[in-house]
């Protein structure tokens, strides 16, 4: 599985680099990457992350359409922020979904790290939807996800993926900085 993991990781680097640059071309790379990662995570018994890839596939299709329409309307992919109330709702829903998902994985599967994996999955779902909607808060969630995922994936022997998430952490910080600049304007 090392070759499959390596190819998925390489596609991930291209994908996130293009997201940081607000390029709609990130989406074809994302679709192939998440398809490959489904198999990588399933074999590693990280079932929440495997199922998450199916979700990512669908949301990437939605995001691609949303970004193309936004670019047509504004001439670029514009970004925005959540209100304080929206942030509280997103945080509460993310925590609740992660907890329920983790408890379900712990009870009904032989998942390797059900609660941590579910936390990564729940925060990733929120981050992916926020990214598709071009909200800057997606980067804060990705920073959190990346920091935790590095250690989980390393512990499961997914060294390429752990390294990818270390790079994702750097790119997420760069994305947050770049999108904040874009939000402020020229």
Describe this structure in words.
The protein is mostly helical. It contains seven helices and no strands. The radius of gyration is 16 Å and the shape is globular.
Beta content comes to under 5%
Shape: globular
Task: Give the SSE order as H and E letters.
Answer: HHHHHHH
User: Taking Cα atoms only, what radius of gyration do you get, to the nearest Å?
Assistant: 16 Å
Poorly predicted parts:
none
Helix and strand composition category: mainly alpha
Termini, distance in Å? 45 Å
Number of helices: 7
Q: Give the helix proportion (percent range).
A: over 70%
* Total strand segments: 0
Mean pLDDT: 92
Q: What is the structure about, briefly put?
A:
The chain is mainly α and 186 residues long.
């Amino acid at each position: 599985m090392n070759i499959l993991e390596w190819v998925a990781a390489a596609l991930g680097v291209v994908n996130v680099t293009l997201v940081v640059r607000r390029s709609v071309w990130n989406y074809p790379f994302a679709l192939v990457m998440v398809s490959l990662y489904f198999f990588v995570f399933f074999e590693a018994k990280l079932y929440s992350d495997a199922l998450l890839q199916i979700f990512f596939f669908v949301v990437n299709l939605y995001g691609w359409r949303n970004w193309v329409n936004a670019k047509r309307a504004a001439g670029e992919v514009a970004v925005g922020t959540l209100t304080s109330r929206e942030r509280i709702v997103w945080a509460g829903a993310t925590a609740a979904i992660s907890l329920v998902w983790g408890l379900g994985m712990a009870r009904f599967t032989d998942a390797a790290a059900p609660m941590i994996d579910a936390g990564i999955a729940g925060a990733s779902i929120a981050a992916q939807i926020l990214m598709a909607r071009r909200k800057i808060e997606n980067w804060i969630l990705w920073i959190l996800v990346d920091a935790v995922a590095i250690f989980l994936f390393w512990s499961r022997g997914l060294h390429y993926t752990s390294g990818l998430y270390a790079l994702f952490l750097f790119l997420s910080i760069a994305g947050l900085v770049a999108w904040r600049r874009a939000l402020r304007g020229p």
